[in-house]
Amino acid sequence: MYDELKYWYIRDHKLFRTLSMSQIKQLCIITGFKKATKGEIIYFSSSDLPRIFLLKKGHIKIVTVDEEGNETIKDIIQKGDLFGELTLETDNQVNEYAKALSDDVTICSFLMSDFEDLLLRNPSLALSYTKFVGLKLKRIRNSYSNLIFKDARTRLHQFLKDWAESEGIKTENKVVIENYLTQNDIAQIICTSRQTTTHLLNEMEENELLQYNRKEISIPDIRKL
Amino acid sequence: MYDELKYWYIRDHKLFRTLSMSQIKQLCIITGFKKATKGEIIYFSSSDLPRIFLLKKGHIKIVTVDEEGNETIKDIIQKGDLFGELTLETDNQVNEYAKALSDDVTICSFLMSDFEDLLLRNPSLALSYTKFVGLKLKRIRNSYSNLIFKDARTRLHQFLKDWAESEGIKTENKVVIENYLTQNDIAQIICTSRQTTTHLLNEMEENELLQYNRKEISIPDIRKL
DNA sequence: CTGTCATTGTAAACTAACTGACAATTAGTG
DNA sequence: CACTAATTGTCAGTTAGTTTACAATGACAG
């Protein structure tokens, strides 16, 4: 029964919809599970064999730490996202780890080598996967080019729009986002200081562009951003 | 005889080494060629069927133009690089084009649909291609995260290091780079103003970290950057 | 209910980098 | 070879955003 659950977890991802049960089994025999609560650090066990991860539930951030111990956010992973070495190449960057942002994080993983075997046997899956990585590439490139050229205000607006787009619950033009990020997190994502972010958020609240609190962000009219 | 040349052009790319002659033919029947000289604009003919491009010779930059007509450099493509829609998804962003940076630009291209067919029939090629796209993703992510957090000076240093690494001719610790970029191009790549770039380059020349001219950049000791 | 820690709010001094404006130099073309 | 356009050099004024520092608020554990 527990085994059944495992399969379902993987099968649920749109990338794996085309797979047969036996192919899923091939991956899942070695599937690892992990649960985490808020603030918990999840290492990409570099000692272990390289793995690909799939976030089933919750939110996590991928973080790197530089020589001086400064955390920088590399990516925010949402439910349904694949992460880890998408290049299918092993990389021994030890100073990179994931951190749970919500209390109900569930991750499953499988060996990269098994995944590669599967791709070789299933060209259409390989094609889907390539498109998936390509899409990720495009998303990252776009968000970065937004980040770099515009000022902090525009960057915050753009970030909120993107966030609302991908996760917000929309009714008419009003959008409500579950806020699992601190202002400091947001600051890091849009590459500005915590103070500037606080300032801008308060400014937007004064102009009635949004209501901010630690649980949720509510945007009365998304078109005005 | 001309046909033979065509095949060779594609076969030369490391991605295609594993292909049989007939598979190459399948791609090449519809291969398009293009030559360009410095400054020439090459459109990703959006009216035409979507294509994948391979830069055989020279250097080009991928550029987007925003509403106000400002050019921003999205990518620099070097000899041997594949470019175009790596996502294998059509995208109707018309405000994106390529511009030749050197006088001897040669591009060949093939239809995306043909490429997809080939990937489906050739799983190991699909896997290689996936890794290729993944690598591109990693490269872009790294270069961006370098760009964003550091100041202009560090960014320029990092850029020069990367450039020297990928294209420079190294003897001992001295590196010579063929300079096909203007200071304005460099400024756009490292996201700063043209004046700041000029200032920093001159500063580095004073400190004998490099010698700059329009033809080449010579770095006496790459470790000092 | 209270103490503690994380998060958010606010302000002043400081600085890197941008903008605009113009001059000097170099490359390419007829 | 001279003319033109592109590239590079230089400067002063301005500004967005950082830094430092501390206060206020909220959340959570015992």
Automatic annotation (TrEMBL), chains A, B:
Family matches, as Pfam families = cNMP_binding, HTH_Crp_2
Q: Does the keyword Transcription apply?
A: yes
Q: Which SUPFAM superfamilies match?
A: cAMP-binding domain-like, Winged helix' DNA-binding domain
Chain ranges of the HTH crp-type domain: 150-223
Which InterPro entries does the protein's record reference?
Answer: cNMP-bd_dom, cNMP-bd_dom_sf, Env_Response_Regulators, HTH_CRP, RmlC-like_jellyroll, WH-like_DNA-bd_sf, WH_DNA-bd_sf
Kindly indicate whether the keyword Transcription regulation belongs to this entry.
Answer: yes
Q: Could you name the domain of life of the organism this protein comes from?
A: Bacteria
Record domain Cyclic nucleotide-binding: where: 15-119
Q: Which CDD domains does this one have?
A: CAP_ED
Cellular component terms, GO, for this chain's entry? cytosol
Recorded hits in PANTHER family, A to Z, give:
CRP FAMILY TRANSCRIPTIONAL REGULATORY PROTEIN, HTH-TYPE TRANSCRIPTIONAL REGULATOR ARCR
Protein name listed in UniProt: Crp/Fnr family transcriptional regulator
Q: Give the species.
A: Flavobacterium cellulosilyticum
